[in-house]
Amino acid sequence: MFHMNIWRVCVAPTHPLAGFLYDPNLPITKEYTVPYLDLYTMDRTETGDWRMQFLKGNRDGILPDRKVKPFSQVNINEMQFDTVNDPKFFLKRVYGSKYMTPKPRAG
Fold first, then answer.
1. pTM to 2 decimals?
2. Measured between alpha carbons, how far is 19 from 105 in angstroms, rounded to an integer?
């Protein structure tokens, strides 16, 4: 886990599930080019909606409850996890409309 503007969790090549994420036929990558997950805090507001850390393009970082609950499921390495009800809405709101297009890193 490391902090770079927000908390992030590395998916290290030494992790027991790394074989599902890394291709052993590819060359070793440069520093900081491993998969990681961004972690955002979310708090329920008095109105029942959700305030989320660093949410762009929305009134004070508020997500409507219907976009968060009921939770949907995501499958990662054959394990089920809860996620927001509308992941595409969430990803577009957080990362912008081109969230599926890789961006080159500067430097």
1. 0.60
2. 25
The pLDDT assigned to 15 comes to: 60
Polymer length of the chain: 107
Summarize pLDDT for 14-53 with one digit per residue, the tens. 666 666 666 667 666 665 556 666 777 788 999 999 988 7
Long-range contacts from 24-28, C-beta under 8 angstroms, 24+ separation: none
User: Which of 40, 35, 21 has its CA nearest to residue 95?
Assistant: 40
Quick one: tokens of 84? 């927001």
Q: Where are the extended beta strands (E) located within the chain?
A: 2-4, 6-10, 36-39, 42-44, 50-52, 62-63, 72-76, 79-83
Report the side by side order of strands in the sheet with 62-63.
Answer: 42-44, 50-52, 62-63
Q: What is the dihedral of CA 78, 99, 72, 5, to 10 degrees?
A: 90
How far is residue 75 CA from its own chain's centroid? 14
